[in-house]
Amino acid sequence: MQIYKYKDYNEVSKAAAAFVIREIVKKPNLILGLATGTSPIGLYQNLIKAYNDGIISFKEVRTFNLDEYVGIDKFHPQSYHSFMHKYLFDHIDIPPQNINIPSNDLKNMEQLAKEYNDKMFGNQRDLQILGIGKNGHIGFNEPGSRLGNMTFIVKLDDQTRIDNSRFFDSLEEVPHYAITMGIKNIMFSKKIILIASGEAKADAIFEMVYGDVGGQYPASILQLHPDVTIMIDEAAASRLEMTSNYLTF
Ligand code: F6R
Fold this sequence. Notes:
single chain, eight-stranded mixed β-sheet, Rossmann fold, alpha/beta
């Protein structure tokens, strides 16, 4: 685990984008795992800038999103399908057939989860981008999720629904279920980059780095992955024992 500390969200976003850009330059047909939420928005803005500046192209990049809400239409403004188009896909040259987002069609969820899973196993991600929930979730692998899970339907934690209600008009509108890559899918990625900022993430970051693996903070499993880079701001790093801006284990 390599941990880099930056001043604030903007610095984290720039550094994380530089990391992703390097990977795309090295391998133009990168298979990239994507996250939604507030954490990667700045990173995506910097990727769009690099695309506009002619530094990278997404023509050959293939993407797999971590998760999607169940129970709202894919065109609902708060679906992760809409999020990805708004914050990234509509601004770059990625061919639509290269984009994979878990389908949330209620009719055949188990089958869809299996299909998403099978597709990922045939396309091992070179790099997975992650955020982290206040409760230590990655993807929507909530506390108590099995470490051996592959893509599955999850009942969202109360904390997660409260945290995400900021995007909806009311807490009642936040879906209760989601489809998510399991921990096993996430761990199957060759490289992982996790970004976080703000005081509210400090406990989750502390438990991810020093906590018991598995336990109540699913992100702690990342201690066992061979190639994880954590990029966080000072507030999110406030509980780590860092004497410089870099820490490695
Ligand atoms: C999103 C996802 C979640 C978020 C996490 C942090 O696709 O899988 O794990 O990364 O909830 O969300 P933000 O960045 O909004 O604090």
